[in-house]
Amino acid sequence: MRELLPEEQERYARQIGPGVLSSEGQVRLKRAAALVARTGGMGGPAAMVLVMAGVGRVIIAHGGRLISPDLNRQTLGSEEGVGLPRADAFAQRLRSLNRFVTVETIDHEPDDAEAEALARRVDVILSCAPSFAERLRLNRAALAAGVPLIDAAQWGMCGSLVVVRPRQTACLRCLYPQQPEFEELFPVVGGISSAVGSLAGLEAIKILSRTGQPMYGQLWSIDGYHGRTSIVNLRRDPRCPCCGDASPAGDAPS
User: Fold this and answer.
1) For 133-142, what is each residue's pLDDT tens digit?
2) What angle in degrees, to the nearest 10, is found between the helix axes of 132-145 and 112-119?
3) Cα 240 to Cα 38: distance, rounded to the nearest angstrom
């Protein structure tokens, strides 16, 4: 494994030690690659967490231009960036946080084929997309590539996380057998976006560094409005068309 440079050891000193990462775990982060699909309200904080922690390569995918209503939650945006393409501006901000990390950009939302190709280039996928169509696409890509998926969702002052271990735990399609309707401009408060995105980033760090216990097979819900949290253990559906026993992913070796 590539060792840490002295400058990297200094940079990451506060997260190496008892109760956090081992030196080997930090090296694993350096060697790892992550895809963050959508780097807005949740994906922005998630990508920042990964970059600051030292994940060696972070690929961000986000299309369109920044608009004023984005600024209540998109931490990588700024007033100066309104009207400009989001991907490049967000990547510049991320690169400014850590010179030891490579940040790649995709200025659109990947289609099925591109999502699968990207999934095969990374070690974990963070799905922070708003629509169910995108989320389920990333779920399929992760299963096809055999890489863990962290699905983050938000609405109002509430959020949720699902962490998928391919072919071993329930996937997102198990949770949503039928694609729910999607509200394009749903209400959301930036505080829940940042909280859920940061927790998604933490789960990715645990997975990539082999530290702690990732929340595989669980639905973690945060009700910020009422100040409540809950964890539900999910059951993999053997008939699921994405990860079930008869599916291509289900037949793949573990």
Assistant:
1) 999 999 999 9
2) 40
3) 26
Please tell me the distance from the alpha carbon of residue 193 to that of residue 24, in angstroms, as a whole number: 31
Question: Architecture of domain 6-247 in CATH?
Answer: 3-Layer(aba) Sandwich (3.40)
pLDDT of residue 200 exceeding 70: yes
Sorted by where each begins, the domain ranges of the chain are 6-247
* Mean pLDDT, the chain, whole residue set: 93
Nearest Cα to 218, choosing from 141, 123, 137, 151?
Answer: 151
Q: Which tokens sit at 57?
A: 């390569």
> Is residue 117 within 8 Å of 144, Cβ to Cβ?
no
pLDDT, tens digit, 9 for 90 and up, residues 82-100: 999 999 999 999 999 999 9
